[in-house]
């Protein structure tokens, strides 16, 4: 066969053209992009093709999920929800009192916060399993941040006002995120960040309970590991053996009950009821043996009655506004993240959907209403929600049953808590937060991604040695830094041909892949924008220099003729990216090398087409659908030219 005939055959080889996407108006594109950004779930799709009355009903059900399950509610469902509600109430009552003390608030506020917010959530929330109430981490953060501004012992009324105001701003921020469809912002709290933060906070919370567990009366107000341990061992003269004995005994009882429930999930009621049993037993012991006369600190007399209004106590101006907004922001983010994560976890187990933005609105409005009814920050707690799930809750009505039980407690049972020892409340808190230390997940992250583990470690150490909020800020900063690194330093890899195929893969990953003489084939694996164009330009030129350097050592048989850029993984490009290709083409052409682009995606192709005015970015011989077609076509060109044909 003659070389002329071979060249004609190669020229006739089918090459698929790269086409731009169908033309759309700029307004339509902008609308589509905004929709994908803020409404990826397309909540309005359920209204399409529906009659007017049906649309109104669907809208009401969307705003108030209670209207979805309420009309079909049955006695069978009620039985399941009553059992679940009573079970979580037995856990919520002692936890509510304990967490309020953790936040440096009166214990009664913890019960107030377990009454009104669950009722609001039952109407607005979309999760069937979420059990609402105060949580340890948000309580710790609020207590520590506000205590830096105001002493809860010297100015208890002002401290309470700031707590309610912070709760209002937390709710306002949470609801705003949901209404504005900005829920993706909380995704900056990565899993690694949360695991490290939660573990560090759990240790700090536990260390803070040493005051109650050892019977110390003068304790540091600082949160770090060193000051707490220093305070503990400098106050050995205040240790009370009676308190230590009681605290150790009930701590062992609570941990054992938790262990039993973890080993045998059907016995969930053991750990769920253990805190209330501990409160009852310890209260009876203190009352019988006059424990308060032997150095055992007790709660004291608690206020009776339902939540008093607190709207007049909210601070929207003055010198404390800054710390109130800051506290609301941080506690709002943390509680929102925990609530949505818990809701989605149990929704996945039962195979139903939880709308993140609706949950933000529900939790936000719940906290705003709570702030005006003497409640502080609440969300869906993992321990309570797990008990609710295991107890067989079918709908959010279990929150209503829990709230009614708390209401009965507030109205009639408050005098019974007068002799409850603080040491048992400390033991309850320690038992609850132990579950936040997730060592298996930390080890899993270490195996998969060392940088993520570094983020986890920074969050953990920052919380322990600096403070809760600074530790969180450091971890979030590192996570954002990682994202910025990935944006500004996108990965580029050299591709080679898998022998016997037209498949091209990473030369490092696939050892059988071979370089194609005269071709440098690179894959860019990230969007191209103003933040990474300089890096990409330098990196591509370095690839070329490395190729030519290898050539000098005789490792190549053919000089570099083509640089092929595989753009299959480049999902977006901006004007700086388009300029990169123009400048790159000029630079490589001055070296006698041709730049070829492969498979630019819709948006990339469209922008290249618009911007191409005399720069020849869209020439058919420089634009191909696949690397295989590009190499085959260009290789035939080289052969034809080498045999004297153009």
3D architecture notes:
By secondary structure, the chain is mostly helical. The chain has 2 domains: 77-294 and 304-436, no CATH class; 490-642, 2-Layer Sandwich (Transcription Regulator spoIIAA), CATH 3.30.750.24. It is built from 26 helices and 8 strands. Strands 4-3-5-6-7-8 form a 6-stranded mixed beta sheet. Strands 1-2 form a two-stranded antiparallel sheet. α25 links the parallel β7 and β8. α8 packs antiparallel against α15 and α9 packs across α15 (321-350). The radius of gyration is 32 Å and the shape is elongated. The two termini are 18 Å apart.
What topology emerges from the helices and strands here?
Elements: H1 3-11, H2 26-38, H3 52-63, H4 66-69, H5 75-102, H6 107-112, H7 116-124, E1 132-133, H8 136-147, H9 156-179, H10 191-208, H11 210-214, H12 225-234, H13 241-263, H14 268-289, H15 321-350, H16 356-371, E2 379-380, H17 382-390, H18 397-413, H19 422-434, H20 439-448, H21 450-465, H22 468-488, E3 492-497, E4 504-506, E5 519-524, H23 533-552, E6 562-566, H24 575-589, E7 594-598, H25 602-611, E8 623-624, H26 627-642
Helix pairs in contact: 1-26, 5-14, 5-17, 5-18, 5-19, 7-16, 7-18, 8-9, 8-15, 9-15, 9-16, 10-19, 10-21, 10-22, 13-14, 13-19, 15-16, 15-17, 20-21, 21-22, 23-24
In short:
The protein is mainly α and 646 residues long.
Total number of domains: 2
Intertermini distance? 18 Å
Helix percentage range = 55-70%
| Cross-sheet strand order for the largest sheet | 4-3-5-6-7-8
| Radius of gyration over all CA atoms, rounded | 32 Å
Largest sheet: 6 strands, mixed
Shape: elongated
Structural class: mainly alpha
Low-confidence stretches: 8-12, 552-556
Tally of DSSP β-strands: 8
Strand content: under 5%
